[in-house]
Amino acid sequence: MASYSTNEIKNGAKLLIDGEPCTVVNNEFVKPGKGQAFNRIKVKFYRSGRILEKTYKSGDSIEVADVMELDMEYSYTDGEFWHFMKTDGSFEQLGADANAIAEAKDWLKEQEVYTIVLFNGAILSVTPPNFIELQVTQTDPGVKGDTAQGGSKPATLATGAVVNVPLFIEEGEFLRIDTRSREYVSRAKQ
Amino acid sequence: MNWQPTATRSALQHRQTVLRRVREYFYHQHVLEVETPLLMDQPVSDPFISSLKTNSGFLHTSPEYAMKRLLAAGYGDCWQYCKVFRGDERGQKHLPEFSMLEWYRVGFDLPMLIAEVIDLIRTAAQCHVAAVQRTYEQWFALATNGLNPHSATLAELQSLASEWIDVSDLDRNACLDILMTHVVEPSFDPAVISVVTDYPASQAALAVRSKDWQGHEVAQRFEVYWQGLELANGYLELTDADEQRARFEHDNEVRQQYQLPTVALDEKLLAAMAHGLPRSAGVALGFDRLLMAMLQASDIDQVVAFANR
């Protein structure tokens, strides 16, 4: 197993701690003038999102996690797995399970490109693009005259996500949505 | 290619001003400014300080031994501002090459030297910073809910330290270091100068050992913290050459336990001590860190012209 010495661990390094993959948020060298040297390493776990701080003796080694981030295009789902294709021209496909897809479930659109984290070659997580354009499949008609007050109403999008949109939005329109805040940004051209 | 300085011009101006204040301070106190060689015949014995080797010797990690030889020769109070070198030390508060202010006062006891360190910091900062002094034991008790660092068992220390680190192969001093850096240091008020006295005897380095009022063996050693930074480390200096030789030999035993290379003893220092080192107190203060504290800099790189990563 490959490993890093605590002295060479930079922010963003991928480590395996207690069998779980994580990324390094901070590595602080700590040493009392006459005492022993330690590294206080703060990591964020990919799966749980939990932040953990752990101290190691300076020079100790920590196992490297086989974690890779890459862009992949969403293709289709067979109900059990969600299939993504590499964008490097290899057309290689990989399936993500329901856990891996959780964060992106509301924003899955065919041919859209997602940030994929691979752990030991399998998809660990799927992050949607910050902005995505989706069609409105259902929304009640807005009441005329209400637009000046800037009111909003719920609208269901093609992915099943429900977001609040201005009253003037009609079914069949394409909208630009911020996936982080789940907020309507603007109308979009198809 | 990133060739730019890491400190602003204004930070370097502060350096110049502070050094000038320090130089004037010692001039008025009639303390002799000295320069001793950066190249040493042998590496330092401290198990956890790594000397850098060159083709002509080892770069010094502190001017301590040479300055003590000046004391033994009867040259009296002396101070020095110099670069020192320590391998493998790099972080936001550490550089492998940093600037140290070190001075020795003949006839001083520790309270006198502590008062002078605080006075010097106030003079350098041109500001009357408050100071609080407690023993190592008192600081530990306050920060850890009553743990006594002298009488606690290894198991008790390990149990506390295990919140942060795998303690299975940590000895007593390693546990104390972890608790000092992770629990005690964060309990210091950054705005106040915090002084720690009466270190455990096992962390005496080159300080005289004595018994405290409860009969625990402690070191006549102190440290000074300010703005979350360990600024200075001082001793009532060991003067007994035989005891000094025993400390060197003990350092080598610890080095063997940690599978570190053993080092040759500094016979010149031992000979000087055999000749007679006057009773004195000495202290080393990290000059870059003093500037960090004054300028509230979060990274040591911000107070040196070039900090190579």
Protein model, in words:
The complex is a heterodimer of chains A (190) and B (309). Chain A has 190 residues and is mainly β. Chain A contains one helix and 16 strands. Chain A has one helix at residues 98-101; strands spanning 3-5, 14-17, 20-30, 38-45, 51-57, 61-63, 67-77, 82-86, 93-96, 113-119, 122-127, 131-139, 152-157, 162-166, 174-178, 183-188. In chain A, the strands form four sheets. A five-stranded antiparallel beta sheet of chain A has the order 9-8-7-10-11. In chain A, strands 14-13-12-15-16 form a five-stranded antiparallel beta sheet, with no helix packed on it. A four-stranded antiparallel beta sheet of chain A has the order 2-3-4-5, with no helix packed on it. The longest helix of chain A is centred in the middle third of the chain and has 4 residues, at 98-101. The model of chain A has no long low-confidence stretch (mean pLDDT 91). Helix content of chain B is 36%, strand content 22%. Chain B has nine helices and twelve strands. In chain B, a hairpin with a 2-residue loop joins strand 10 and strand 11. In chain B, helix 1 (9-28) packs across helix 3, helix 4 (136-144) packs across helix 6 and helix 7 packs antiparallel against helix 8. The mean pLDDT of chain B is 96. The A-B interface holds A 7, 28-38, 40, 53-59 and B 46, 48-49, 88-94, 164-166, 173-174, 176-178, 180-182, 203, 205, 223, 230, 233, 284.
